[in-house]
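To: structure desk
From: M.T.
Subject: fold request, one chain
Message: Could you run this one when you get a chance? Sequence is below, nothing fancy, just the single chain.
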Amino acid sequence: MSSVLVTGGSGFIGSHVVDRLAAGGAQVHAVDNLSGGDVENLAGALELGAQFHAADVTDEVAIARLTAAVRPEVVVHLAAHIDARRSVDEPAFDARVNVAGTAAILEAARRAGARRVVLASTAAVYGKPDRLPTPEPAMIRPLTPYGASKGAAESYLALYARLHGLSTLALRMANVYGPRQDPHGEAGVVAIFTGAAAEGRPVTVYGDGRQTRDYVHVDDVATAFVMATSSTATGALNIATGRETSVLELAAAIGLDVLHGPSRAGEIARSCLDPTAAGCVLGWRPRTPVSVGLDRLRAAVAA
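Reply: Done. Structure tokens follow.
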């Protein structure tokens, strides 16, 4: 692969994808507006020849110019607004980043002659599913503007495949965790919990703590994205473990004292995705059990 452009490339997941691509010999161009990412995350990849570009995916002119100059073979689109709660308060902002930003990336990729675009999507597109683990044919019925914007972004991928013959794939990720995830801002619960453990303080669990999520390690997720760049698979694939872990189980595994707060309105009680199709189509399978991933993360935080 001659050239890959990775949006959101200095962020939590994006920097791991850049690392993996650079280590595999690709010429990687990481793009980020640094609103949530950190160039320090790319230190190793930059030493291997990756390049960093400061740009915002909502700036159509800047993205078009950069993509035309780089002429990537593949674009991996991870730049996004991911705060579901903020999306409820600011749906227009969420749509501007996740829908308009995706449209700008797709058009820039098409004009630059890219072969393929891979989108980071989310379990949130399913909303409250009828079946667990949830397979890809399940109905798309999001419960937040964030989930709706990612569903709309997926529809743009399908449109560009039909209209322009561009090869596109969306990876619907479960709850990703691992090193470089900031325990503040838009972080997931694992980062928040490990941050609390490092500071020796208890955590607040909303409701009874029996809510479940499907926690997939960032190393496995990065592997999925790399596999997707060289695949011809289209449509959408779940990237998950297919296993549920409750909030209380997570807190116990990290060794945290728990305080209980009131339940949050609209929170989904259970979420778990079926990764079978990704195994069949990409040959991808999760390799990191939650217990192992948490041990690695605790060690990284303590170091």
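Reply (cont.): Residues 227 and 283 are 8 Å apart (CA to CA). Let me know if you need anything else for the meeting.
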